[in-house]
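User: For a reading group we're discussing how well predicted structures match intuition. Take Redox-sensing transcriptional repressor Rex. Before you show the prediction, I'll give you the sequence so everyone sees exactly what went in.
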Amino acid sequence: MLSNIPNATLKRLALYRRCFVELDEMRVRRIQSGELSQKIGIDSATIRRDFSYLGELGRQGYGYEVRVVLEAFNNLLKPDDAQRCILIGVGNLGRALVKYFSSDKFKRRLFRTPVNLVAGFDIDESLVGQHIGELPIYHLDNLSSYIEENHVTYVILAVPPFVAQKVATSLEGLGIKGILNLSSTVINVSEDILVHEVDLNMELETLFFYVFQREQLKK
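Assistant: Thanks. Here is the predicted 3D structure of Redox-sensing transcriptional repressor Rex, as structure tokens, for the group to look at:
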């Protein structure tokens, strides 16, 4: 069961799934844990332990069948029962996300995401009433009513930092399960909403720190 998987393993599942999708696209049918370890930089023992939570996916000396592993991930994520997601903030980053999620690769069964992006929201009157690709854009004033009427459960927050908390607070009590926060500031919401913070500048700084540390160790 998903609830029994440790948090450390949960954080790696998306990386594993992406890797196996790439292997499938390259028509690789089977891969050994050692080969997988070299590909993604995670030791073989950790990979085997992580995969043990998903069932019997491989055999010693035989490795993992790519399609079998992908099916296991799909059974876990249930992409055919996609949850509705909205994008709040349709600036440059928001539009890039819409274009990314509109890619043909997300239409393939084995790579479909369990979340379906259904609408965007902004306060820019030049965007309201328009479509970005197939995604309709609504005014932020209609946010609460849209969420309740369309049973939205996930939000991608891509607004400027100074309004992020206000927007996040307005989502409380509307049945939202999770927020992907791209606003480059920490937000605080009620405990029934899970927030995943992604700050691209922090990720880049983290990369710099890793490089700096590696170079210092070489001296």
